[in-house]
Amino acid sequence: MMHAGDPGPALSRAAVRGLDRRAILEVGVPSIVLMENAGRAVADEAQRMLAGRSGAALVLAGLGNNGGDGLVVARTLLNRGQAVRVVFVGTREQLEQGTPDFRTNLALWRRHRGDLTLAPEPDDLACLAPALRTAPLLVDALFGTGLARPLAGAHAAAVAALNASGAPVLAVDVPSGLAADTGEELGVAVRAAATVTFVAQKSGFARAAGPACTGRVVVAEIGIPRFLMEEALRDAG
Predict the structure, then answer these.
(1) Which of 69, 16, 5 has the alpha carbon at shortest distance from 235?
(2) Tens digits of per-residue pLDDT, 18-43?
(3) Looking at residue 52, which CATH number applies to its domain?
(4) Whether 115 contacts 77, CB under 8 Å
């Protein structure tokens, strides 16, 4: 289930990451199932935002589980008949060195004959500017809650290109460059039209630059057992 409007209570980055860890290690929910559920929830919102629009959606993916979520989004949209491209912001070596779940979804994307472009340098993002401007939707799957340093290089250029495109941006879990706990912009942050965040909204969404970066917040249930959620909310309260 996804909730818009009042997105409910917020949790810290540590609390949400702890929920993921407990669901995987204590309950036995496979991490790849959580990633699949997360990506499909974002794809549902992407379809709503794409209604009546033509052209290929662009997913900008980074290295790590947020990028893996983005690959699930792309595959799901492709299977639902939506034209979609993936831009991986990084080198080919980095592409092949992702987390196990990222690599699984990369292999699936390739087997689905999905379009994949590499953008290892800031200039590569400049070359993509026309495609970014004409896309009906841009999906920000660069960084999630784990980011704790200012963005630089191609990643900062990617965020700047997303913000300059004029196209609506849908952020995956957390707008890239936004500190999940404080709402601080880590150098530069995505200004999204909407954010599909997982499990619970993050503490920084209501602080500092949070409201300007997240846009409309949708909270997606991704398979974390309810009793773990209730424990986390009690601890946070």
Answers:
(1) 16
(2) 999 999 999 999 999 999 999 999 99
(3) 3.40.50.10260
(4) no
Residue 138 near residue 169 (C-beta atoms within 8 A): yes
Crossing angle, helix 226-236 and helix 13-22, to 10 degrees?
150
Only one residue has tokens 């983005």, namely 70
Question: Cα–Cα distance between 152 and 216 in angstroms, integer?
Answer: 26
Please tell me the distance from the alpha carbon of residue 164 to that of residue 75, in angstroms, as a whole number: 26
User: Positive or negative CA dihedral for 223, 225, 229, 235?
Assistant: negative
> Quick check: 96 and 87 in contact, CB under 8 A?
no
Per the structure, the count of domains in the chain is: 1
The residue with tokens 């900062």 is 156
| The Cα angle at residue 234 between residues 233 and 237, in degrees rounded to 5 | 85
Domain of 182, in residue numbers: 2-236
Give the pLDDT confidence score for residue 1 in this predicted structure.
46
Q: Do 223 and 38 contact (CB within 8 A), yes or no? A: no
The secondary element (H helix, E strand) that includes residue 46 is helix 31-50
Structure confidence by residue, pLDDT tens digits, 98-145: 899 999 999 999 999 999 999 999 999 888 999 999 999 999 999 999
pLDDT at 235: 86
Tokens of 209: 């630059």
Contacts of 179 (CB under 8 A, 6+ apart): 147, 148, 185, 186, 204
pTM: 0.95
